[in-house]
Design brief:
The strands form five sheets. The protein has a five-stranded antiparallel β-sheet. It has a five-stranded mixed β-sheet with strand order 12-13-14-15-18. Strands 1-2-3 form a three-stranded antiparallel β-sheet, with helices on one face. By secondary structure, the chain is an alpha+beta fold. The chain is elongated and about 100 Å long. Strand 14 and strand 15 form a beta hairpin. It contains twelve helices and 18 strands. About 35% of the residues lie in helices and about 30% in strands. About 5% of the residues have low confidence. The chain has four domains: about 100 residues, N Utilization Substance Protein A, Chain:P, domain 4, CATH 3.30.1480; about 60 residues, Beta Barrel (OB fold (Dihydrolipoamide Acetyltransferase, E2P)); about 80 residues, 2-Layer Sandwich (GMP Synthetase, Chain A, domain 3), CATH 3.30.300; about 90 residues, GMP Synthetase, Chain A, domain 3, CATH 3.30.300. Participates in both transcription termination and antitermination. It is found in: Cytoplasm. This is Transcription termination/antitermination protein NusA. Monomer. Binds directly to the core enzyme of the DNA-dependent RNA polymerase and to nascent RNA. Belongs to the NusA family.
């Protein structure tokens, strides 16, 4: 191979694979040494280590053992097949490592992707440089997926134990909601507004608690946007999932009241020891406070970290019964049960 051809081929592989030319040359050296060791084990076992030299300009291979040139006649032809296999494997490993390194910096980010195909319960997602996997557990039960569909995903983890598709992405993680808002809201990007907490039931509804770090900035208004255009963009990306934007407060009483919106509630009595809150609600606000199948009070409990008991004006107590971790202990807050005082 003439000088310009070898250099051109080296640069082309480096460009296509996204790895450096030096990495490719090192892979070639390992391949040639492996081929020599396999075909000439006695010579390779001698005291002096065999060192492979590759001329980066011409591609010429020379094997040196100490000061002695031990390159066998026709070595390139004899070892070509073995070398090819090792080279391909080495390039694949280098390419894989380059992708892993790149996506280490994207962990926790929301990135665009395209659904490639459905395979054994998981979707393969084309992210450009690589194909990620979205397992069944990271999918949303009522979202419609199809081949070649473009959507945004949350880069959740890198699992190097997987034989391929090491990048795990999610559509169900609450962090996806946060990331989508960060893409849309300049005030979040500048940290004039911060998201303090998110409670999500993927595919149905999310509650997002926000606060302002700058005087004069309305955190809820910043998230919603004029005529709701900002929040609608996120809702559209999540295929209709409802978004409740509420004002965060360092007062537990006020935070719980806000979290139960759109319902207007009355007196809130908190027991810090058990992380429970008793909330009095009028009859006309009762259904709003509880929500369909208890969803509103359930999400409010998850958002605030308190088990919330809704008490009607007639003395009926509505208690959520799902599992909520509070101070390391599990409390029920799933469905809603009704009792009389």
């Amino acid at each position: 191979m003439v000088r310009t051809e070898f250099l051109a081929a080296l640069k082309q592989i480096a460009l296509e694979r996204g790895i450096s030319a030096d990495e490719i040359v090192e892979t070639l050296k390992r391949a040639m040494l492996a081929a020599y060791t396999k075909d000439y084990p006695e010579q390779a076992a001698e005291n002096d280590e065999v060192v492979v030299h590759i001329d980066k300009e011409t591609g010429e291979v020379t094997l040196m053992q100490g000061s002695k040139d031990v390159t066998p006649p026709g070595f390139g032809r004899i070892a070509a097949q073995t070398a090819k296999q090792v080279i391909l494997q080495g390039v694949r490993e280098a390419e894989k490592q380059a992708v892993v390194t790149e996506f280490q910096g994207k962990l926790g980010e929301v990135v665009p992707g395209m659904l490639q195909r459905f395979e054994r319960g998981s979707w393969l997602v084309d992210l450009g440089r690589t194909v990620a996997i979205m397992p069944h557990t990271e999918q949303v039960f009522n979202e419609n997926y199809r081949n070649n569909q473009r959507l945004k995903v949350y880069v959740k983890e890198i699992d190097e134990n997987l034989p391929r598709n090491n990048i795990v992405v999610s559509r169900s993680d609450a962090k996806l909601v946060e990331g989508l808002f960060e893409l849309e809201i300049p005030e979040l990007q500048s940290e004039a507004v911060v998201i303090q907490a998110i409670a999500r039931e993927a595919g149905s509804r999310s509650k997002i608690a926000v606060a302002s770090t700058q005087q004069g900035v309305d955190p809820v208004g910043s998230m919603v946007g004029q005529r709701g255009v900002r929040v609608q963009t996120v809702t559209d990306e999540l295929q209709g999932e409802k978004m409740d934007i509420i004002l965060w407060s360092d007062s537990a009483v006020d935070f719980i009241k806000n979290a139960l919106s759109p319902a207007k509630v009355g007196k809130v009595t908190i027991t810090e020891k058990t992380k429970t809150a008793r909330v009095e609600v009028s009859e006309d606000e009762l259904s709003l406070a509880i929500g369909k199948e208890g969803q509103n009070v359930r999400l409010a409990s998850k958002l605030t970290g308190y088990r919330i008991d809704i008490v009607s004006s007639t003395g009926e107590i509505f208690t959520p019964n799902d599992e909520l971790e509070i101070n390391g202990e599990v409390t029920n807050v799933d469905s809603v049960t009704e009792t009389k005082e």
